[in-house]
Write a structure and sequence with these properties.
The protein is mainly α. It has helices at 3-6, 11-48. The longest helix has 38 residues, at 11-48. The chain starts with a helix and ends in a 15-residue tail after the last helix.
């Protein structure tokens, strides 16, 4: 018995829905990975220009 016939008359809807969800999840993973790279690069550029994070300052020093 084929997978599509075992899903019944709504097989095309079910398969299309799963494919669409898989595509969206993969697209989000790629988007997050690319954004992480961009944010890391921006942070490196800021730190190279002398701008530091407030969390990197010693305690008691005003920001």
């Amino acid at each position: 018995m084929s997978l599509l016939t075992s899903l019944g008359p709504y097989a095309s809807f079910i398969v299309t829905s799963y494919a669409l969800v898989a595509f969206v999840v993969v697209a989000l993973i790629v988007w997050i990975a690319l954004d992480f790279r961009r944010q890391t690069q921006t942070l490196r550029q800021l730190e190279a220009s002398g701008i530091t994070r407030r969390s990197a300052q010693p305690p008691g020093k005003p920001s």
